[in-house]
Amino acid sequence: RKIYVVSNMGLYESSQLRNMFETVRQWCGRMGFEYCGGLGVSAGELQGVLMQHLPFRIGPTAAIAQGTEKLAAAIDNGEKTGDIFAEPKMFPRKLFMIVANRSWDVNARKNGISPKDLYRQL
Question: Fewer CB within 10 A of the end CB, N or C, for the chain?
Fold first, then answer.
């Protein structure tokens, strides 16, 4: 059996999925399966929102589109592909951090606490 992996994570650096791919690779070896590669998508929640408002193959989501097409072709042909890491293109990490962390303050207020309370040590 051939195993392909697709993984979505919230962090900006998709390379942090290397350990997960390696774990699946080792599991495949023990089970007698063939590990054929994977697609690691970073900033998944952001990418999902962007896909709703921008063309899928253009801008920040272009790496996901390319990775998806490469993985799909490998699956169709029964071939191996290396692990593919798809990060947002043309979306600076610093801006990602601002957007990602903003939700903490918004959700704190919705739950009746101040953003300052999030950082208070008990």
Answer: C
pTM recorded for the entire structure? 0.76
**Is the Cα dihedral 53, 83, 15, 25 positive or negative?**
positive
CA dist 70 and 74 (Å) reads 6
> CA 83 to CA 4: how far, in whole Å?
9
Q: β-strand 84-86 against 2-8: which pairing, if any?
A: unpaired
The pLDDT value given to residue 12: 78
Residue pair 68/39 in contact (Cβ under 8 Å)? The answer is: yes
Backbone angles phi, psi at 111, to 5 degrees: -100, 15
Residue 75 is encoded by which pair of tokens? 């699956």
